[in-house]
Amino acid sequence: MSQKHIGDYIVNTCTLYIKPVEYGNKLYSHIGEVDEEILCPVKPIALIQRGCAYYGVDFESRRKGTRLLIDYSRKLPIIVEPINHIFAFCTTSPGNPMGIWFFYEQIRDYKRISARETLVIFHNGQSFLFPVSYNTFNTQMLRTSLLKSKFMQRVDYNQKKLFYLLNRPKPSKASESNEFYSEDSK
């Protein structure tokens, strides 16, 4: 896999993970994509915030929306972009600069390797060992799954409601006209 340096990266449907790396005395982001690795001179949380803004909503609004949907307050997963199902979660509190961000739709499986290591297998066939406990990773996967499920239920409900409103049976007209009946005939 090739590695390139990009300063204006936007998370997308090919993003697998974003992990922090120290580069000199600065914190950079190592980004795993489906077919390449990228080094970006921006912290991981800033990339998530930039991604949310790029797709039209600020990060804090996404956090508030998540809190309302799944009723959690810590380590919240984020809907970065709902149309293309870009759901992300962090292995730590988002305020912790050493947290690794994962993109839910890209993960095929994960396995416990040791008390503090999890092997993550992505849909493109790549697998990497990450310094995160299996329990933490599993909890974050479950929270993200719940968020996606609740969000999609609401979208689905609205689509069904709209379909019903547009396709409901029209009231039929009587076969007779009331012009033949008058007050005199009573």
Please describe the structure with a list of short key phrases separated by commas or semicolons.
7-stranded mixed β-sheet, alpha+beta, 186 residues, single chain, elongated, 10 strands
Mean pLDDT: 88
Uncertain segments = none
Principal-axis shape: elongated
- Give the number of helices: 3
Terminal CA distance reads: 90 Å
Broad structural category: alpha+beta
Fraction in beta strands: 25-35%
For the sheet with most strands, the description reads: 7 strands, mixed
Task: Provide the helix percentage.
Answer: 25-40%
Number of domains: 1
The sequence of SSEs as H and E is EEEEHHEEEEEEH
* Alpha carbon gyration radius: 25 Å
Strand sequence of the main sheet, in spatial order? 1-4-3-2-7-6-5
Q: Could you tell me the number of beta strands?
A: 10
